Amino acid sequence: MDTRKVGVLGGGQLGRMLIEAANRLNIQVNVLDAPAAPAKQISAHDGHVSGSFKDAEAIRQLAKTCDVLTVEIEHVDTAVLAEIEQAGTVAIEPRASTLRIIKDKFAQKQHLAAHGVAVAESVDVEAYINGSNPNPNSNSNSSNSNNDSPSTDPSSSSSRTTALTTALTAIGRQLSYPYMLKSKTDAYDGRGN
Q: Would the pTM count as exceeding 0.85?
């Protein structure tokens, strides 16, 4: 029997399926999530940690209860995972550096393109608004120096709306319509993807 314990950040439906498989292998899984999270409902033991899987202290607490730490969803504090990884007391899979790429969909596209994977042309809207290269994973080396970039100060709400509207219109001309606007971070099925 394997006596190692697995810690999982997040206890939703994927965490629940992971526990179902682990139970058949007699592997204890400790979950960090809300008390009534789906994964905790099928695994009654005292190794679970109640709290947010984005909370650094709660993640450290979970790490003390397990030998291997993984994630159910990538929306976690990667800085604390890197800290735990550096200490070498708990194996982190996937590594914190991998999770940083996974959790930022634009960085993920850049990473894939840099490694020869074909990806759809895309633009980082925030970078576009700030005047940096709007399309680093495109075959073209275009930039927004063509006066399409917003010149408003994005610090106020109305200026922000104007900047976004101007940027999205210019990006539409650049990529052509229709195009899809997606969240870079904190997105999942049905929200921002």
A: no
